Amino acid sequence: MKPLRIHEEAESEIRATIARYERACPGLGSEFWGEVQHTLALILERPAIRAIVRRVSVRGTARRMPLRRFPYFIVYRDRDQDIEMIALAHTSRLPGYWRTRGV
Q1: Helix, strand or coil for residue 65?
Q2: How far is the C-alpha of 88 from the C-alpha of 75, rounded, in Å?
């Protein structure tokens, strides 16, 4: 299994989203983090599990996997040396804002 690398902007997105959920309802941020961890574990086990995202400027092949309970998806790419998480993107806010990361 390849190691996971999280893009610094994706890490900031995770932290901000956890904090937002935690402010809205104590404990919800932890539930969100658990869902992110679960989804990342699935990606690491089977990187090709999701369809390729078309028209993306990142080097390599970008894929995205939705979270089950929250309106977010994880954008990642399977590289030779690791799996890189490019973004934690909301399903309907600012679509495609992350498309130039990792060019």
Answers
A1: strand
A2: 6
Q: Where are the alpha helices (DSSP H) in 25-62?
A: 28-45
Task: Give pLDDT tens digits along the chain (103 positions).
Answer: 899 999 999 999 999 999 999 999 999 999 999 999 999 999 999 998 777 776 655 566 788 899 999 999 999 988 889 999 999 988 886 555 555 555 4
Length of the chain: 103
Determine the topology of domain 4-90 in CATH: YaeB-like fold (3.30.2310)
Structural tokens at position 38: 């679960």
Residue whose C-alpha is closest to residue 93's, from 16, 3, 6, 34: 16
Q: Read off the pTM.
A: 0.85
